[in-house]
Design brief:
By secondary structure, the protein is mostly helical. The chain is built from 22 helices and seven strands. The longest helix is centred in the middle third of the chain and has 60 residues.
Length: 610
């Protein structure tokens, strides 16, 4: 790249074209500034003449100021042949160089004539615009070339467009002022076809321009990024306004279209550097934090209850503490994580200890349960032995069982009582209840067997004969002797109770008979002189007399007579006693009256009155 003053020359990487950058105005242009031109180039620029190429390769010249077109090179352009650039646009001229005779195409004459006629008709039908008419009025009379085929003519017109039309933004009306100065403009006779070809060309050129711009902008962006990467003063802390003047010295800085785009790319670049810096610090911090964590683990005095202030005092002299960048943020976070880990570890240990104690307690409970179960089994066996011995029956009570010798001497009873008194009582009562259930189940069979033995008298039959008689009945042979004995005792007791009831009823009837006899004696219907037959005649219709047996009647009558005799004897003795008592009472009264009379006489005597 060359530079002179404020201008410098550069090559666009995307398109390969040369552009020029102004370091003061920050502007980039495609046109070469005069400051960078050589004297011949300046001479060409200052003249009004421009050089153009004809289709046959010859050069012709046009004066933009006067509008003159000629084949002869003007003297003003002498000495600047090599340096004079070919103009991209040509002015409208008033004169044209003499036309060369056109060569007639060989062959296809008839087809070409028909096409030419159709194009002429189309040209006559289409009315040109005012601007086209104005341009047409100043079109020089250039020679009309001849082509063998229409394809060759169209190709020549396209070549004309390639040579003369440099911008895709050029309108058709403006392009006509340039194109019709070339003889190839007449290669296509129809104005409509010319316009269609032009529009297709412009569309393609616009697409090419877009592609070229994209490539150019991409290259400009890549170059700007290369510039940023090459600049040592651009780091993660750099600001655009601080470094833009230094970057402006490089043409890659001006390659971008706008300062805003440069600023955005710069910010993105710096953000990437910041991210890399953070990652670098993060990697270093990870190593430092790992070393700091090792320091915490090596310090035995730090535990779950240590505070950060205390830990800082212990650790601040160690290089692993000092290696962490910044303030205490990362140290404190790592310390908190470490302490939380210690707390969690202590909690886990406590949980494990509780679980261990719980397991031990569970094992102890299971062992105790096994012992208690064995004790209950042994106690139940003891109750069975007491049942076999007849000590414990279905009519026994817990109070009675507790007073037995087995309850006082057996270890099995003592162990069960030591385990639980209430459980001991429950087991005894449950055992007795079970005996009752078993006996009730066998009692039905024994009852049927007893009914089947019709000649069996419970009041006279012994236990051995009773058992033999019942076991001869089907189903009763498997019943234990103890249950047969209990059933026998139950029947005996029932018989005794029945006999007692009969005796009591008999006594009540005798008592009623005695009351009846006492009643009749009181009414003097029966006296000491009455006989049994007289008494029977008096009481024979009464139920109290009828319901009693004759022996009981005789005994009751004899008892009543004996009682009556005794009462009569007592009554006679009491009567004599009362007579003597009355006689003694009368003599005493006479004595007392005499005594009172004598006292009155003593009171009335003269000595008493004194």
């Amino acid at each position: 790249a060359t530079s002179k003053g404020v201008w410098s020359e550069h090559v666009d990487k995307g398109s390969g074209k040369t552009y020029y950058y102004n370091s003061v105005t920050k502007a980039s242009v495609w046109t070469k500034p005069q400051e960078l031109m050589s004297p011949p180039e300046i001479k060409v620029v200052m003249t009004d003449w421009k050089e153009y190429n004809a289709p046959d390769g010859r050069k012709y010249y046009n004066n933009a100021k006067t509008g003159v077109t000629q084949w002869t090179r003007p003297p003003e352009m002498d000495g600047a042949v090599a340096a004079a650039p070919v103009a991209e646009t040509a002015p409208v001229v008033k004169e044209a160089p003499a036309a060369q005779p056109a060569v007639e195409p060989a062959g296809n004459g008839k087809r070409a004539a028909v096409e030419e006629k159709e194009e002429e008709e189309e040209e006559e039908v289409r009315r040109p615009t005012k601007k086209e008419k104005k341009i047409k009025e100043v079109v020089p009379d250039l020679p009309a070339p001849k082509y063998d085929t229409k394809e060759e003519a169209v190709q020549a017109f396209r070549e004309l467009l390639e040579d003369k039309v440099s911008s895709h933004k050029l309108q058709w009306v403006d392009a006509m002022a340039i194109l019709q100065l070339d003889v190839r403009f007449k290669a296509v006779k129809s104005l409509g076809e010319k316009k269609n070809l032009y529009q297709n060309y412009i569309a393609k050129k616009a697409r090419d321009f877009v592609d070229a711009e994209r490539i150019r902008k991409k290259g400009a962006k890549e170059g700007f990024l290369e510039l940023l990467n090459e600049s040592d003063f651009v780091d993660h802390k750099a600001r655009y306004r601080d470094v833009s003047e230094k970057l402006n010295l490089d043409p890659r800085f001006a390659a971008l279209d706008s300062d805003r785009e440069r600023g955005d790319m710069f910010e993105d670049f710096v953000m990437g550097l910041e991210k890399k810096e953070k990652e670098r610090l993060k990697l270093n911090r990870a190593d430092n934090l790992a070393a700091f964590r090792n320091l915490l683990e090596e310090t035995d005095t730090i535990n779950a209850r240590t505070r950060w202030g205390e830990a800082k005092t212990l650790l601040k002299e160690d290089e692993r503490y000092q290696s962490l960048e910044g303030d205490d943020k990362y140290r404190l976070e790592n310390f908190d994580d470490y302490v939380q880990g210690l707390i969690a570890k202590e909690a886990e240990q406590k949980d494990m200890e509780r679980a261990r104690k719980k397991a031990i307690e569970e094992m102890e409970r299971e062992r105790k349960k096994a012992i208690e179960k064995a004790q209950r089994t042994a106690f139940t066996e003891l109750l069975g032995e007491m049942e076999v011995k007849g000590i414990l029956t279905l009519k026994s009570t817990y109070k009675e069982a507790k007073e037995t010798d087995e309850a006082k001497t057996e270890t099995r009873w003592e162990e069960m009582m030591a385990q639980s008194k209430s459980k001991t009582q429950d087991l005894v009562e449950d055992f007795i209840l079970e005996l009752q259930k078993k006996f009730q189940a066998n009692r039905t069979t024994l009852k049927e067997a007893y009914k089947a033995a019709e000649k069996l008298d419970i009041t006279t039959c012994g236990l051995e004969a009773f058992g033999a008689a019942l076991k001869s009945h089907p189903g009763a042979d498997a019943i234990s002797d103890l249950h047969i004995k209990m059933f026998h005792e139950e029947l005996v007791k029932l018989a005794e109770e029945e006999l007692a009831k009969k005796e009591k009823k008999k006594l009540l009837r005798v008592k009623e008979l005695k009351k009846l006899l006492d009643k009749y004696i009181g009414r003097e219907k029966i006296t000491l002189e009455s006989s049994f037959e007289e008494a029977e005649a008096a009481c024979g219709e009464r139920s109290a007399w009828k319901e009693v047996s004759s022996s009981d009647r005789t005994a009751a009558f004899a008892s009543a007579m004996a009682t009556l005799k005794k009462e009569e004897a007592q009554a006679s003795g009491e009567s004599r006693s009362r007579s003597r008592s009355r006689s003694r009472s009368r003599s005493g009264e006479r004595h007392r009256r005499r005594s009172r009379s004598g006292e009155r006489r003593r009171d009335d005597s003269p000595l008493r009155r004194k």
